[in-house]
Amino acid sequence: MKSNFADRLANACRTKKSITCVGLDPRVEKIPQSLMTGTSNKAIAEATGIFCKGIIDAVADIVPVVKPNIAYFEALGVEGIKVYSSVCQTAQDKGLLVIGDVKRGDIGTTAEKYAAGLLGTGGENTLANHDAITLNAYLGSDGIKPFIDEAEENGQGMFLLVKTSNPSSAEIQNLKLEGGDTVAEKMAELVSGWAERLCGKEGFSSIGAVVGATHGEELFKFRKIMPKSPFLLPGYGAQGAGAKDIVGAFSSGGNGGGVNASRSIIFAYEKNNNSDYALAARNATIAMNQDLLSALENTGNGF
Amino acid sequence: MKSNFADRLANACRTKKSITCVGLDPRVEKIPQSLMTGTSNKAIAEATGIFCKGIIDAVADIVPVVKPNIAYFEALGVEGIKVYSSVCQTAQDKGLLVIGDVKRGDIGTTAEKYAAGLLGTGGENTLANHDAITLNAYLGSDGIKPFIDEAEENGQGMFLLVKTSNPSSAEIQNLKLEGGDTVAEKMAELVSGWAERLCGKEGFSSIGAVVGATHGEELFKFRKIMPKSPFLLPGYGAQGAGAKDIVGAFSSGGNGGGVNASRSIIFAYEKNNNSDYALAARNATIAMNQDLLSALENTGNGF
Question: How far apart are CA B301 and CA B93, in angstroms?
Fold first, then answer.
C-alpha cells in the first residue's frame, strides 16, 4: 500500500520545489500535426498519447503532479480510454503523482463502482491508476463516503469541487444561504468534516478541495474553513489568475496543494512560432514555477 | 437527424403505455453465476453484457426507455466500456430510448469534449450512442451549454440533477437560501430557463430534470418550477418510493417523464427462488407498469 496521499503530495512539492500541476487537456485540434500518423480513430488516439507522454517527459523532473482530464480521451472512444490509462501509468512510472480529473459523483453502490474503477488497484478491472481524483459532491456524503473508503485502502486522495474557476460558478456556488454563508462555503464545511479522515503526518488530509484561483481574496476564507485540505487551484494562466491570487491557499514550507495550468503549458508551443512543443511546455513550466515560488517567498511561505 | 428527444420520449411512453425506465446497474456480484464463463476481466465484462442484453430483450416491448449506468461498466476497465457501448447499441436497435446515466459535469472545452463523447454521433469517436444523458450542473450554465448545443444537433436530451433520491441529498440540495427557496429549487429555476431550448411539439423540452421519487409532495413544487422538463424519477422500488409518490410529475396523457427502477427489476430473480432472471425482470416490469398506470389513472392522467 502507498503511504498517505497528502504526505506524498507535500513531499513531492518539497522535493521538486514546485507547486505546479500540469493539466493534460489534449484537445485534438491543438496537438501538433506532425504527431498525427493517420486520420483513423486509433491514429488520433495514439497521437494524443504520444503528445501527453512528450509533455510528461518534459516536466517530470520539475513538477510534483499532473492532472489528465478524462473528457478529452472519452471523446476518442474506447481507443481514447486505453490511451488515458496508459498516460496515467507513464506519469506514475516517471515519479509523478496523477490526479485524474474525472469529476464523478453518484451514490451508494454506484459510487462504490466508480471508486473501484477510478481508485481501485484491480489491474484490468481498474480504468486507470490514479493517486487522486476530482469529485462532485452535490449529492452529499452518501456520494463521497464510498470514495473515501476506497482511497483509505490504497493511500489515495480526492479533490472535491467547492468553488470552480468559471464565471457561471456563481449561479449555484455563490448563492447566499440563510445565515449569510454561500453554497460554496457550506460545501467547504462539508469537505472540512470529511477531511477529518485520511490525515497524514504533515497536518493535511488526503481529502482536498478544488477552489478556483480566479477568486483570489476568497481563498483566505476557504483556507480558514478547510484548514486540513490540500487545494487544487485551477484558473492560473489561460483563465486569467496570477501568482498573487493563489498565496491565500498556502502556509509555511509551500504546503497547501497545487496550482493547475493546462493550456498555457501544454500548448505553449503555439506562442513560440510552433517550436518543439515539449521544450515549450518545459519552459512555460519553469516560468510558472518561478512565478509561483516568488509569490510564496514574498509571503514567507516558500520552501 | 433524429427528431426532438422530448417528443420521442412522449411518443414512446404512449405507444408502450408505460412510464417505466429500467435502470441497468449490473452489479457483478448479483449477476447470475450461470452467465459467467470465466474469471478473467474479459469474461466478467462479457457476462455483464449478456445479462444486460437479456434484460433488454425481456422488456423492450413493454417499456419506452432504459438507463444503463456507466459506473458499473467503468469498474470493469476498458473491456467494460466496450460492453457499455454495445449494450446501449443493442437497446437502441430494439427500439428503446437510451438514457446514459453518466452524471458528468465540467466547463468550456472540457464540457464540449464530454458532449462529443457522450452525445456525439461520431462512430468510433463516440464512447456510446445515447438518446440522452444525466448531468450535474453544480458548475452552472458554462457547464451545460456545450451539452445543449451538441444535443440540439442530434435530437438528443439531458436530465440535470435537481433533487436526488438519496438521504444525504439534503446536505446541499435542501439548504435554505435568503428569500426562502432551497438550493434544489434554485437549480430547478436554472433548469427551467435552460429548458426554453430544445422544445418539442408536445410542450416538453429535451432538457429534463432528475427529481427523486422519494420526495413525493415536493414533486408538485418542482413540476411547477419546471413545467416544460421531463422528469427522470429515481427511487421507486428498492429505494422505497411507491406509485402514489410520483403522480405529481405527470400531466394528462401520461406526459411528464419516466420512473426509474433498477435493482427491483433486474435482480427480481433473487426473490423468485433464482428463477430465469429475464422472465423475473419482465414480470417485475409488468407489475411496475400496472402499479404506475393505476396511479396515473387515479389522477385522471392515464394514457
Answer: 30
CA distance A233 to A49: 25
Q: Do B178 and A173 touch (CB under 8 A)?
A: no
Q: What is the mean pLDDT of chain A?
A: 95
Amino acid at B10: A
CA dist., res. B138 & res. B103, Å (int): 11
Note the pLDDT of residue A275. Answer: 84
ipTM of the complex: 0.96
Q: Touching check for B282 and chain A: CB below 8 Å? A: no
Residue A38, classified by CB atoms within 10 Å of its CB into exposed (0-12), middle (13-18) or buried (19+), is exposed
- Which residues does chain B have within 8 Å of residue A186's beta carbon, measured at their own beta carbons? 172, 175
Residue of chain A with shortest Cα separation from B143? A168
CATH superfamily of B5-298: Aldolase class I (3.20.20.70)
Average pLDDT for A26-52: 95
Cα–Cα separations (whole angstroms), residue B72 to A128, B129, B165, B297: 15, 17, 19, 35
Please identify which residue in the block is written with the cell numbers 478473467. B40
For the structural domain made of A5-15+99-296, what CATH number should be given? 3.20.20.70
Chain A residues near residue B78 by CB distance under 8 angstroms? 78, 81-82, 85, 124, 127
- What's the CA gap between A287 and A265, in Å, rounded? 10
Give the confidence band of B233 by pLDDT, cuts at 50, 70, 90.
Answer: very high
Cβ-nearest to A172 among B114, B164, B187:
B187
E strand or H helix at A97? strand A97-104
